[in-house]
Write a structure and sequence with these properties.
The protein is α/β, with parallel strands linked by helices. The chain is built from nine helices and eleven strands. The protein has helices at 3-10, 48-53, 75-83, 96-99, 121-127, 152-161, 179-190, 231-250, 257-260; strands at 16-19, 23-29, 32-38, 65-69, 88-93, 114-118, 132-137, 162-173, 195-198, 204-210, 261-262. The protein has an eight-stranded mixed beta sheet, sandwiched between helices. The protein has a three-stranded antiparallel beta sheet with strand order 1-2-3, with no helix packed on it. α6 packs parallel to α7 (179-190). The radius of gyration is 18 Å and the shape is globular. The N and C termini lie far apart (50 Å).
């Protein structure tokens, strides 16, 4: 491996794997579980915030393409790949040590509708000429949300890579002192109020924005299982879908954002 690539690898924290009889977790520290996989249900979502992020299905139950910033243990990637068989999934992961655990977390190999790229998420969103129906931003490192993945330019680029009517979903943390700043930046990029849904089990705050003022967030479909979606998989995430749906029905674009941030 060339020296430049060795330096790049050395710049990233190496996670470790913690296993129990029923689960496998990727951790950056003893207090920081980055991702978790149930050994008997490797494609299931273990954290409620990831279920809430799937709320884009209420807006578009059959997206043709999804791009994800951050692989981790691959929970969202595996779930989308398995249960959205007509959707292409592109995942961007900057940490080569994380990517090295791909097999350990049963992340499928690349094929004609699934690919994992070792790249900087902000640079990819800035430089790509591809368009997507959904952008899922969940890129955290040991220090939290990187500056490059919360800058105004990044949110602008996320808006630009979306197809008309496309949805952006970001995982933020309410305890971050710059949380309100990030919300302002997303609203500035999308030119409209955003929908925020709290994860009741933690500090995660899931932010939804749509690239099309004519397709307001209040128009989210009801919490029906999408046509062709596995009913058992839908049943598992249905409470989180209901949380997103209720937040969307309460959203009033005529009010200020403080009223739009629906908490449960």
């Amino acid at each position: 491996m060339p020296a430049a690539q060795n330096l790049e690898v050395a710049d990233h924290v190496k996670p470790f794997i913690y296993e129990t009889l029923s689960s496998k977790s990727m951790c950056f520290s003893l207090n920081d579980v980055q991702s978790e996989m149930h050994l008997l249900r490797p494609d299931a979502l273990q954290f409620e915030y990831t279920e809430i992020m799937m709320g884009f299905l209420l807006h578009n139950p059959t997206p043709a393409s999804i791009v994800m910033i951050g692989l981790g243990g691959g929970s969202l990637a595996k779930f989308c790949y398995r249960y959205l068989p007509n959707t292409s999934v592109t995942v961007i992961e900057v940490n080569p040590h994380v990517l090295a655990h791909r097999t350990a977390f049963a992340i499928p190999p690349d094929d004609d509708r699934f690919e994992v790229l070792l790249a900087d998420g902000a640079a990819f969103m800035r430089d790509t000429t591809r368009k997507f129906d959904v952008v899922l931003a969940d890129g955290f490192d040991i220090d939290g949300l990187p500056d490059r993945l919360s800058a105004q330019a990044f949110y602008d680029d996320c808006f630009n890579v979306l197809n008309p009517g496309g949805m952006f979903v970001a995982n933020l943390h309410g305890c971050n002192p710059f949380f309100a700043v990030f919300m302002d930046r997303i609203e500035d990029s999308f030119g409209a109020p955003v929908l925020m849904v709290e994860d009741p089990s933690g500090s995660n705050r899931l932010v939804f924005a749509v690239k099309d003022a004519m397709r307001a967030l209040q128009s989210l479909a009801g919490i029906r299982c999408p046509l062709g979606f596995d009913p058992l998989a839908w049943k598992a995430i249905q409470p989180s879908m209901a949380r997103v749906f209720l937040a969307s029905t309460a959203l009033d674009h005529g009010e200020n954002r403080a009223s739009n941030d629906i908490n449960f």
